Amino acid sequence: MRPERPLCSPRPPLASVQAALLSWITGQGLGAPAVDPPSLIHSDARAGADERLAVYAHMYRARLVEALESQFPRLARLVGAEAFADLTADYVADAPSRHPSLRELGRALPLWLAERRAERPALASLAALEWARVDLYDQADEAAMTLETPRAWPPERLGELPLRLIAAHRFVEVAGGTEALWDALSSDATEVPSALVASSALRPSAPLLVWRQEIAVYHRALAPDECAALAALADGSCFGVICERLAAVHGDELAAGRAFGWLSTWLTDGLLVQPA
Prior knowledge:
Elements: H1 14-26, H2 49-71, H3 73-79, H4 81-94, H5 109-116, H6 121-136, H7 148-152, E1 162-163, E2 169-175, H8 178-184, H9 194-202, E3 205-213, E4 216-221, H10 224-233, E5 237-238, H11 239-250, H12 252-268
Helix pairs in contact: 2-3, 2-4, 3-4, 5-6, 6-8, 11-12
């Protein structure tokens, strides 16, 4: 009489297997797993199931660190490699990205740093500037106004010249001194003075304009009056409105000189959309 064959244990549902492996590899708790991941992995003399799974867990964490460092290279340089890896793990655990692309991984990092690393405000300011620059890089192209447009405009109607900021811009409020910290953390910097980090945390906040001109991204500090003028152009305005606002504060003569100076700078920087 032939011996009975042992009953095979039923295979767990694919969804259960996927959820268990995801929880193991990412370290993100997804409830009590219905399947024990190591039981799904073959062990041999070269490596056990736990070791094989650990390879994927390590690569997952390393890829996240690599992706976040590509978006925040100066922040990574400031805190150091080991601390940045720990920061990445904490950030992803607290605010995991739900977007399928790693491009969105760092979107919430500046706010997260402001809340979870409040004792080091320079980190959040630096991250806010870095994210704004990253986020603008692949914004839609628009034809920028050139100097020929105002030159060709009838002089008596120059106040009607339509002005609108390109979409590829951001106003970023950062701690004073963030620009200097950015420069000090350039790729060829050997050391960042600790006093510079401390001063960036203590000085009053200041607005920065971040924008893309063709394929390059720039930023610069803004005086309060220019910041207000540019904000008025975000949805579109005209040159005459800018002149009137300046005249109400500074008088006609000073207002005219400042308005034309701004217009020249905005055109040089490619900040204005070419009128249709």
